[in-house]
Amino acid sequence: MSKNKPSKTGVGTEPEPDAKNETEVNSSAGDRVDDVFDLPVVDEDTVLTGAAADATDLEEKLKDLPRILRIALLIDRRSGYIHDRLIADIETLSPGLALTAAFATTDDPATALALAKELDRLAVADDMPELRHIADCVRLVSLPIQNDLAGSEDYRRITQSLMNALARLPTDIDPSLGAEIESFCIGWAMLPALKHRLPRYRHRDQTAANHASFLGDQAATRRVEAAEATIWTKIEARAASQSDKAEDAGDQPAVRAHQSSATGPNQCVVASLSEREMKAPRVKEVLAQYDGVINKALPLIVPPPLEEVRKALQFEFPYAQNVIDTVLGDLIGRPTVRLVPTLIVAEPGAGKTLIARRIAELLQVFCWRTDSARTDSTVFGGTDRRWNSAEPCHPFLAIVRAGHANPMILLDELDKAGGPGSGTSVPSNGGGRLWDCLLGLVESESSQRYPDPLLQTNVNCAHISYLATVNSVAGLPSPLLDRFRIIHMERPSRDHLEALLPAIVADLARERGLDAKWIPMLDGVEHAAVASAWPGGSVRTLRRLVEVILRDRDARATRN
């Protein structure tokens, strides 16, 4: 049975494994060569599987690439049977090698590097240069993250091979494919310098290649933004020219002049209207209160230091480690705050709404709270300008209130949005379900061009983050669940009492407009009273108990 290397995974927190140095690797490799008589032969199914994988699922546009770039893309795309493909190639060119059989049945880097060295030798001895290319691919899929990666001869060789192949790419290569290759190659070259940034995000069984694209994707963000800005400047100039010509001819402008992030980095124009539209009497009357947002470049909030945010959230919610790490993981490498649409599932009283609100506060973005049980699609999605009660969609209102283009919308109790009963219910006021309205707003593509009924133009809501709280996902429609990430949050136990009390006191102090240091922590008697009354579970109940104690303190202080 073939054994494939693990592919690139998501965010993790496991520590960096101890790496073997080159001396240990070479020594171990030598021992294995001496024991070749004990190694099995290559399973024929492995060869057939590898050959079939290349024949059936390899994209046509990848087949003309140098072998090492094909393997790099397969690693990046988490493709299967990568080892089997290499084994099939080796068996075709140089069948019967004992080290090939060992490579097929073990994850040991020493075995892989010994096989690569043997292929190099055979490439010279048998005059088969193709074996040297396969040797480089074996190194690429197997080389571990070593403590001295920059000093590794194998690493330097792969870096040179990747860069040489990158430089020889044809000029007419598909742009997205070329960008994917470039990202991997640059990320690989960055590994020794930025290896210290990897332990949080990797697992023990990952190789160096699994991290190349992660680093490469972060290397060119400003260059991409600058290119986008240049393109939007040209579009804006062309649109303005066409608009002027249309107005001179007395017609409606064929193209609306859009502003964009071209006005500066980390900015976004949410809504654009032409001068003629803005001057229409009815529109001018309705849109007066939104004048500061329309045709204006709004800032996008940049994430604060994530370590500080994480530390503060852990202090307040020690039982919600999975929620904290998953949500903050979205911001790693991002220039601005934007979270994946997320459903936080927990029993009533577990603190779902509170943690969502605190995430927004600590990320320094405005939080627009929506009571899902009292909101339907007609309200949340906006109403047409012909009605006296006309107003824009709530995401646009959140942006207006925030003054920046990437606020957070908290959808509280989203499981109750369908009305009483089941997920097929509709609100009693005749409006549509909030769920249906959300589908287009949380989808990245459609949210960039959401048709607002009041503005009667597309508004860009793509930078908004959505956090929703539910007690259960049982009644939610599947199209909505497909668009949200689901995180289950545990309720706190009595063991978390010591960690929760300081955070609750600090939060109650904030509500009173006080610094937490002005409210002393609970003394021994007060602490014992809370501990005896709270068995764990609802944070809401614990908060009420602490509030009672603080009110009793205030009353006693007044009497004295």
Question: What report would you give on this structure?
Answer:
It is built from 24 helices and 9 strands. The longest helix has 28 residues, at 221-248. The chain has a 5-stranded parallel beta sheet, with helices on both faces. A two-stranded antiparallel sheet has the order 1-2. With 560 residues, it is an alpha/beta fold. It has helices at 22-34, 44-57, 67-76, 82-93, 98-105, 109-125, 129-142, 153-167, 175-194, 212-219, 221-248, 275-279, 281-287, 306-316, 321-329, 352-362, 377-380, 394-402, 434-442, 444-447, 478-483, 497-511, 524-533, 539-559; strands spanning 267-269, 297-299, 342-345, 367-371, 408-412, 450-452, 457-459, 465-470, 485-488.
Brief account:
The chain has 560 residues and is of the alpha/beta class. 50% of the residues lie in helices and 6% in strands.
Strand order of the largest sheet: 4-5-8-3-9
Q: Give the radius of gyration.
A: 30 Å
Strand content: 5-15%
Low-confidence stretches: 1-30, 32-37, 199-204, 250-263, 420-430
pLDDT averaged over residues: 77
Q: What is the share of helical residues?
A: 40-55%
Give the end-to-end Cα distance, rounded to a whole number of Å.
81 Å
Number of helices: 24
**Overall morphology:** globular
Largest sheet: 5 strands, parallel
**SS-derived structural category:** alpha/beta
Number of strands: 9
